[in-house]
Structures are given as structure tokens and as C-alpha cells.
Amino acid sequence: MSRWFGRFQRKDSWYDKYDNGESGRPVSLERARSESEWRGALSPEQFFVLRQKGTERPFTGAHWSTTAAGVYSCAGCGLDLFHSKDKFDAGCGWPSYTKPIEDRVVFTEGDRTHGMVRQEAMCAGCGGHLGHIFPDGPPPTGDRWCINSASIVFRPAD
Fold it and tell me: So what's the pLDDT on residue 5?
């Protein structure tokens, strides 16, 4: 499905595929761990973002300005999430992407915290909080996946 968004026609937008952008939680999270295992495996900042749904301050994360070719994986479980070819500078201070590598690697749920209505993006492997998705990105999808640097690890292309 595609529809017009501003001056361009959106193609394969997450918001077109899922009702209000909310895909829902997968049946199982194959890479889940106990809280104590997560605390031992993650840095304090990664634990805050991935497990406690925290947010790093804008323009402070390791990947917001990265332009090298490669893949961004979940810092919690290693699942490949985003490709650098889909990354763009949204000017918001967090790494932003037009789409995930595959729809199945992420899921979204409604988030009504902090007086806002938005969609939370989470890793489908471990359920870790990644960031949020907004319908104000560039073509072709019109989506902006706004992701915390602490929730991802960059692997440069070979």
C-alpha cells in the first residue's frame, strides 16, 4: 500500500502496514534473559535504555552522526536491526532510519508516557527498548525510526 504524504507518495510505511503503527509483541522473545543476566551483560547506560526504557540525551550517543557503511545490531542480543543505507540525518540527535532490515526484527507498541502518543520500537529478539517510530521521515517510507545509540552496536561493512 502507498499513499501521499506531503509532497511524496509513501511506500511500505510501517504506519500503512500496521494499525496506527502498532504491530504488537511477538509470541516469544527467543533471546530473552533474566534481569540479573541483563545487568551482567550490559553497561549501565545500555541497561537503562534497553531494559528500563530510558532515553539517552540527544547528540550524545555514539552513532547519531555515524555515516560509515555497515549494519546496526541490538546491543542486547546481537540481532541485526538496521542497515546504514537506510540511515539519515533527521537533525534530532539520535540515529534515524527509514526502515528496519526486515519487519520481523522489530515490533512496536503504543507508548503514552511523558504526555505523548507515539509508537515504541523494540527488538523482536530480546524485547529491548530501541526508541520510537514517527510518521515524519523522508521518502520512500515516510517513517523515522528514532533509535538510541546505547541500544545498538555498529558493525562496519567488510
Answer: 47
Match domain 7-59+68-156 to its CATH number in 1.20.1290.10, 1.20.58.480, 3.90.920.10, 2.170.150.20: 2.170.150.20
Amino acid making up residue 144:
R
Grid cell, residue 59, equals 547528540
| Choice between 32 and 87, residue whose per-residue pLDDT is larger | 87
- How far is CA 124 from its chain centroid? 11
Question: Has 146 been annotated as catalytic?
Answer: yes
Which parts of 86-127 are beta strand (E)? 87-88, 96-97, 106-111, 118-123
Q: pTM for this one?
A: 0.84
DSSP code per residue over the chain: -EEEETTEEEES-HHHHSGGG-----S--TT---HHHHHHHS-HHHHHHHTT---PPTT-STTTT--SSEEEEETTT--EEEEGGGEE--SSSS-EESS-SSGGGEEEEEE-GGG--EEEEEETTT--EEEEEES---TTT--EEEE-GGGEEEEE--
CB–CB of 134/80 below 8 Å? no
pLDDT above 80: residue 45: yes
